[in-house]
TrEMBL record:
Name of the gene: ptsP
Reaction catalyzed: L-histidyl-[protein] + phosphoenolpyruvate = N(pros)-phospho-L-histidyl-[protein] + pyruvate
Organism annotation: Phyllobacterium myrsinacearum
Taxonomic classification: Bacteria, Pseudomonadati, Pseudomonadota, Alphaproteobacteria, Hyphomicrobiales
Residues reported to bind phosphoenolpyruvate: 409, 445, 566-567, 577
Protein name per the record: Phosphoenolpyruvate-protein phosphotransferase
Active site, per annotation: 302 (tele-phosphohistidine intermediate), 614 (proton donor)
Entry's Gene Ontology cellular component terms: cytoplasm
Length: 656
């Protein structure tokens, strides 16, 4: 039997979503195939699946034959229709969508020199200078040695043992407690490649055809690697390096050799390699590595992802030029511009050292503001809060000194699950948040999901303009079966701390009133059931031009405003926030947007309610003084911006 659907998995069946899909497929006995454009592959091979190049919004057919075919098709179709399938549950770092893998044209970090340099892909930001640690393992030769007919069986056995050895090494690496969660995801993906029948079966078939195992592995891996390299997707192109790295490990096991070991790398070294496997880097002593330079790789390669996750500056994709660095003693790299200097002269060295010292000192100095309570010149406390989307982010927010949460995006909770999250699961999540930040406020935003980002359990209509469509409060009010469990969960969580609730995409006072009616019904239902609950402050996001223009009326209905500058800017400027061709118009500092913010602030402060901001602009030091002057008393931002914002408020109040 078979069923077709449109793939909604965010960014398609890339690495982790593909391997998770394969894992799910393997849990069924049936033979399962995925069919796209008349090409069909086994759904039980991650490599084959990735090579099929299944993208988001493409039509795909799942075909199954066997005893559990119905269940298999149901589960796999459910997976394909879930936008966040496979993306969130292993802590793995995902490539950033804007990464293109092409050499970046960004500015050099902190005014570093732009001439006399080798140039590669700026893969992980920051500058570094240090002694070269060359990682140039010997090349493994492709001999194509013919085997005698009676030697073939033994060679196949040797190959199988070598594959098992590599798998065991990867398992041991995965079992190490010291391995960062993000790296664990990457090693797991490599292990999947080492387990994949496309690679192992391909190599075994070559040996069975009478060729030695090392050559067979090189042959099989280079075929798969070149298939990846020719796909029209930079992320999949970068998988070619992963396949080669796995092949190399199998060859080394066949030859009884150990790979070059990074354990001896000295503190502050710059790792220079023609090619380095993600597995080698993940298990290296990363704290001692000041920078990474590599001939291969791009911004979406796993090496880049590991470097970024650990804050190590990296320039990749330098090509053959990396060989010029082999004999250099010192090297300087700028991960913002992609520039590399071999044995830099005193001038360049001085400039790099100054830039590194400046960045380090800035970061260190900001930690002094962690526990500061910033106030306006008149003594009013300005709450610098965190924007988060999951419980996993609580620690980072508290560590940064967040004075509560100014925006908890509940979408992730809904996208994470194949089914809608239950009221109990939601109550538990919101309660944990409230407890973690008490006595500070935690502002939970009710579900803000639109036609462009469907969730399992909700049928979204096809819309010409999803951003102007059935999203946020509009959808919630039409679906009380989804909205009321969330409101009841929030009422229950309010018992455990300072929960506040805000409504997204408000453009009419009636939407607030209708929500209040539902909250009243929810409270009555909880009371009737004898379930503990407490009332919460209700606020609205100001992110539509309509909300700005009716702000005085809205202020009479709610306890606070939170300005969502991301959407407000796109709607005021009529410039899609996701469309790079109109990015110039999407500017929060445009006088039209600043005027809208000021109008909102005035309406809120005139009515005596709290006015905050949770759009990206809230963390901008160049704008914070203006927002404070307008009367905003809460700014919510990504945890990494909190200390700088506290400093900015403090210095602003001293200057007043
Ligand atoms: C905003 O629009 O500014 C906002 C904070 O919400 P989101 O970015 O989640 O749409
Ligand atoms: Mg918004």
């Amino acid at each position: 039997m078979e069923r077709s659907t449109i793939v909604r998995v965010h960014d398609g069946l890339h690495a982790r979503p593909a391997t998770r899909f394969v894992k799910l497929a393997k849990s069924f006995e049936s033979d399962i195939e995925l069919v796209k454009d008349d090409r069909s592959v086994s759904a039980k091979s991650s490599v084959k699946l990735m090579l099929l190049g299944v993208k988001e919004n493409e039509e795909i057919t799942v075909r199954a034959t066997g005893a559990d075919a119905i269940e298999a098709i149901e589960a796999l179709i459910g997976y394909l229709e879930n936008p966040h399938a496979g993306l969130e549950d292993d802590g793995a770092v995902q490539p950033q969508k804007q990464d293109t893998g092409k050499p970046a044209a960004r500015k050099p970090a902190q005014g570093l020199p732009a001439d006399g340099a080798l140039r590669g892909v700026a893969a992980s930001e920051g500058a570094a200078i240090g002694a070269v640690y060359g990682f140039f393992p010997a090349e493994i030769k492709h001999e194509n040695r013919p085997l005698a007919a009676n030697a073939i069986a033994d060679e196949v056995l040797r190959l199988k043992q070598a594959i098992a050895t590599v798998q065991k090494r990867m398992d041991a690496s995965l079992a190490e407690t010291g391995l960062a969660e993000s790296d664990r995801g990457i090693v797991a993906a490599l292990k999947d490649i080492a387990n994949d029948d496309e690679l192992t079966g391909g190599a075994i078939a070559i040996v069975e055809g009478g060729i030695d195992a090392v050559s067979a592995v090189i042959g099989a891996t280079s075929k798969i690697a070149s298939d990846f390299a020719t796909m029209d997707d930079p992320y999949l192109n970068a998988r070619a390096d992963d396949v080669n790295a796995v092949g190399r490990q199998i060859c080394l096991a066949l030859l009884g050799q150990e790979d070059v070991n990074l354990d001896t790398i000295a503190e502050g070294s710059i790792l220079v390699a023609e090619d380095i496997g993600a597995w080698d880097l993940a298990r290296a002593p990363l704290k001692r590595i000041a920078g990474v330079i590599c001939g291969h790789g791009g911004a979406t390669s796993h090496v880049a992802i590991i470097a970024r996750a650990h804050g190590i500056p990296a320039v990749l994709g330098l090509g053959r030029a990396v060989l010029d660095l082999k004999h250099a003693r010192t090297v300087a790299l700028d991960g913002d511009s992609g520039e590399v200097f071999a044995d830099p002269d005193a001038g360049i060295t001085g400039r790099f050292q100054a830039a590194i010292a400046k960045a380090g000192a800035e970061k260190q100095a900001l930690t002094a503001y962690r526990d500061v309570t910033p106030r306006r010149a008149d003594g009013t406390v300005i709450d610098i809060a965190a924007n988060i989307g999951s419980l996993e982010e609580i620690d980072a927010a508290k560590e940064a000194g967040a004075m509560g949460v100014g925006l908890f995006r509940t979408e992730l909770l809904f996208m994470r699950h194949i089914h809608l999250p239950s009221e109990d699961l939601q109550a538990e999540t919101y309660s944990s948040l409230a407890r973690a930040f008490a006595p500070h406020a935690v502002i939970v935003r009710t579900l803000d999901i639109g036609g462009d980002k469907p969730i399992a359990g909700v049928d979204f209509p096809d819309e010409e303009n999803p951003f102007l469509g059935w999203r946020g409060i509009r959808m919630c009010l039409d679906r009380p079966d989804i909205f009321k469990p969330q409101l009841r969960a929030l009422l229950r969580a309010a018992v455990h701390g300072n929960i506040k609730v805000m409504l997204p995409m408000i453009s009419d006072v009636g939407e607030v009133r209708a929500t209040k009616t539902l909250i009243g019904e929810c409270a009555a239902e909880l009371a009737a059931a004898g379930t503990a609950f407490a009332h919460f402050d209700l606020g609205v996001m100001i992110e539509t031009p309509a909300a700005v223009l009716i702000a005085p009326a809205l202020a009479r209905e709610v306890a606070f405003f939170s300005i969502g500058t991301n959407d407000l800017t796109q709607y005021i400027m009529a410039a899609d926030r996701l469309n790079p061709t109109v990015a110039k118009l999407n500017d929060v500092t445009h006088p039209a947007v600043m005027a809208a913010i000021e109008l909102t602030a005035k309406a809120g402060t005139d009515a005596g309610i709290m006015v905050g901001m949770c759009g990206e602009a809230a963390g901008r030091p160049d704008l914070i003084p203006a927002f404070i002057a307008m009367g905003l008393t809460e700014l919510s931002m990504s945890p990494s911006s909190i200390q700088r914002a506290k400093k900015c408020v403090l210095e602003g109040s001293k200057a007043d």
